[in-house]
Amino acid sequence: MREGKARRIYPHQGVPCSEAKRVQSKARGIAFLLAMVIILILSGLALSMVLLTDTQVRLGQTTQAQGRVFYSALAGLEETRGRMSISAPDTVALSMPNSISQVLYLVNSTPGDPVQPTNPTSPYYDTEYSSEFPGGFASASILPNIKSDQPGVGTSTAIPYKWVRITLKTEASAHTDINLDGVFNNTSPIYWDGAQQTLSPVGSLVYVLTSLAVDSTKVEKILQMEVAAATGGFTPLAAFTVGGSAAVSGNPVSNPASIVIDGRDHNLGGTGCPPLATALPGIMAGGTISSSGASLNGNPPMEPSVMPLPQSAANLISQYQPAAANIVSVDPNHVTFNGTTYIANGTTLGTLPSPVNSGTAQVVYADQPLTISGTGNTGYGILLVNGSLSVTGDLRYHGVIIANGQINFTPSTSGVRVVGSMLGAGNSIWSTPSGGSAFIHAVYNSCTLTQVLHLVGGGISSGTGGISASPQILAYRELSF
Q: Distance between CA 336 and CA 329 in Å, rounded?
């Protein structure tokens, strides 16, 4: 019997050598596969961590950019609000919109990055305007742009807001039914009366400031703020209001009367004018009122013994004086000071408006009594006199006159015409002599007041005016786009 070849057996495994090698090879393959799987898993985890970290970094950068442009847009709003005060050295008060069709932009350009908010091809085109005003820019009167003057303006260190738009608020632009009549009015501006917003032309006009900020990563923010002048300023109580007694004596043979005092609104309308206001008294006085040879009109024509008066001439002068220029500096060639009284002769205290000229209104302050004599005296704006005002010559003035003393008009051969409203703290005498052509006319005009009261802090009003400080914030929001 032939003996077969013996197989080697591994005592510890009990299997032939060749079988053991196959087992070992298979084990190594599984181990390699497991190692690859583990490596892939670890690589995936590592990649996930990298991606997660990158996402977190990007989110952090986006959040940082969002915060940066938010505060940039807010900075634009605050720069604009501060510059709305007439007392600001870089005031924009004289350039403010005075009708719902007017639009003013403060722009923050650099030489390499011009800002053109009304240009549809500009990356900073104001798309919000057409959503607020259905007529878009085609129906708007675009006022000349005003440049930002923030620190670093025009350089890479400037705060990256691009523009701030200033408009008057209407129900249509705000998509808000203020008076709850079911209609979004698009012809009348909104007023702030100190307690609420209203369509009644009493208080301060409400302005809407809209700011766009865009940073280098193209993150954008649009913020909006509603502001109005704080209430508590000048309120027209009558065509002529006097703290003491008033004596009015006209030429007894003059026809028509040589003295006319009219509290009915002589607002003729036009751009920037409010609706016709309710008639005021012709004369309101804290004391008695005597009248002869004069035509008095209003609701009522005379209102005596009103004590105390709702307005204080001294308080208003103190409030508005920071926004005013001294009378000598306004017209040094025609105003002199004799140690106790300013003497004006042929002076111009602001340029009167005309059919072809909007005029130049000024806030003028005389810290001592003022006498106006001679001919050619004109003014437009707000005249503040810390003492008595005496007019013995001629005067044509449109706006507000406030005197912390008497207001005496006694022209001998010429005339005095004041359009707007006046307030005096003391007794007053108005007279024209018998014979001759001297006259005195004082008429209430809400449009004139609207045009001049914004000089003292953005407060435009046929009722309450503003103050010389920055206007107060009524509302604030962030717009989606």
A: 10
